[in-house]
Amino acid sequence: MTGSIKKTSATKIHKEGYNIIAFFGIFLIFANIVFYYFLNNYHIIDYSFTVISAIFFTLVILFFRVPRRVLFGEENKIYAPADGKIVVIEQVFEKEYFKDYRTQVSIFMSPFNVHVNWVPVSGVVQYLQYHPGNYFVAWKPKASEENERFTTVFKTKDNIEILMRQIAGKIARRIVSYAKTETEYKSGEQIGIIKFGSRVDIFLPSNAKILVELNQKVKGNKTLIAEL
Residue 129 has what pLDDT? Predict the structure, then answer.
């Protein structure tokens, strides 16, 4: 199921990627010059390195692409905050904020997915907390509590609280969040990015109607995750 999407201009590059793209661009140009200088008699190796460099640089750019998805979401409906695959749907005891049982829905973001994160539901930010941690593979259950992560809690106009947790993984090494406490956000606004992907958990009231299934591929700002 999807929300109402307004079509806008083409994909752009996220500002968080500018420095990284520039770094790899300069590094790969320099590396190719060195290869050409020392291996100019070994054209197969030289050409192969150039092709690999071009593919790698293209992937780095794709990591930071931002599709224009403007969502006009309905109240009390939860939309996917990230692109990826549903890897967890279960009742769990949420220890950090609620300290009671909630329905956890987790989206795993591969290195090939869009890495931007969006606000899953309209509401006011009640709680923000960054946690340093490890870098276990993101689809493992312990990643939600032991990996580096950033927690944001939204309260809807009906006083329902939804917790969103951005989690770093084996490759990701930086979580960026733009959320501010006591600030109201609309579902579909950009809330941050996890550089080189990872995972996003959403903790919902136990009586929320879940509208996705395990292993289902979802699109941020497009797929309807649940109804409150």
Answer: 94
